[in-house]
Amino acid sequence: MRIIIEPDYEALSKKAAQIVASKIKKKPNIVLGLATRGTPLGMYKELIRMGKENELDFSKITTFNLDEYWGLSPSHPQSYHYFMWDNLFSHININSERVNVPSGTAKNVKAYCKWYEQKIKEAKGIDLQILGIGRDGHIGFNEPGSSLSSKTRLKTLTVETVEDNARFFKNKDEVPKYAITMGVGTILEAKECIILVNGENKAEAAQKCIEGPVCSGCTSSALQLHSKVITILDEKASQNLKRKKYYQYSEKMASNLKKLS
Ligand code: GLP
């Protein structure tokens, strides 16, 4: 796993956007896996800027979102559908037919999840998956205890996640208790992954994800088994890393090597 430590959230977001932009330029019909919520917002803003300034063309990309609350319609302001259109898709020249976000209103959930997996396969898999992590180190909505080979399915959210989300809803009863999420196994099938982690409140999760044992108690730790992962952290999120100095040294050495070759 490549570890990049940036001074703050702005630098982290710019770095992530640069990497994504260079991949889009290399492969204009790239298949991206996307995440929601606070962490990737800065990166999305930067990608929007690049699109507006004609530095980047999104017209041929395909996207698959990681997850969606079950029970929320796409027009609900807290749905991940709404989030993605509000914070990214409406501002770039994406083809809406190539946008895929799991449905929060699917009736036959099992069949729907199978179909979502099939759609990813038909697109020849995800080239680059963007991930944030929860405070307990979860990815998507793969809560602690999720099978590390799981595929897209309905997950019951933990009490902690429901409580965490309550602030976004007017009424407590409205807070979703379930979500449809790509599985850890689905994520591991992506050709490359970028994990973004910022803030002090993620420092413990970041340490477990990068240096802890691979276990279902922290589903992001499964990414240690993937051969092409870049984790970008800000200074605060990196404060618990035991091998922080080595990661920084190794980044410096890699760039020296680039200059030499
Ligand atoms: C939810 C989402 C995750 C996200 C996490 C952290 O659990 N399903 O994809 O990474 O929240 O959100 P934030 O980036 O706001 O801290």
Describe the secondary-structure layout:
Layout: E1 2-6, H1 9-26, E2 31-34, H2 41-52, E3 62-65, E4 67-69, H3 80-87, E5 99-100, H4 109-122, E6 128-131, E7 153-156, H5 159-166, E8 178-181, H6 184-188, E9 192-197, H7 203-211, E10 229-234, H8 244-260
Parallel strand pairs: 1-10, 2-3, 2-6, 3-5, 6-9, 9-10
Antiparallel strand pairs: 4-8, 7-8
Bound molecules: 2-amino-2-deoxy-6-O-phosphono-alpha-D-glucopyranose.
**Could you give the order of strands across the largest sheet?**
1-10-9-6-2-3-5
The end-to-end span amounts to: 22 Å
Calculate Rg over CA atoms.
18 Å
Fraction of helical residues? 25-40%
Describe this structure in words.
The protein has 261 residues and is an alpha/beta fold. The chain has 8 helices and 10 strands. The strands form 2 sheets. A 7-stranded parallel beta sheet has the order 1-10-9-6-2-3-5, sandwiched between helices. A 3-stranded antiparallel beta sheet has the order 4-8-7. Strand 2, helix 2 and strand 3 form a beta-alpha-beta unit. Helix 1 packs across helix 2. It binds 2-amino-2-deoxy-6-O-phosphono-alpha-D-glucopyranose. The site of 2-amino-2-deoxy-6-O-phosphono-alpha-D-glucopyranose has 12 residues, from loops.
Tags for this model:
10 strands; 35% helix; single chain; alpha/beta; 16% strand; 7-stranded parallel sheet; binds 2-amino-2-deoxy-6-O-phosphono-alpha-D-glucopyranose; 261 residues
Question: What does this entry show, briefly?
Answer:
The protein is of the alpha/beta class. It has helices at residues 9-26, 41-52, 80-87, 109-122, 159-166, 184-188, 203-211, 244-260; strands at 2-6, 31-34, 62-65, 67-69, 99-100, 128-131, 153-156, 178-181, 192-197, 229-234.
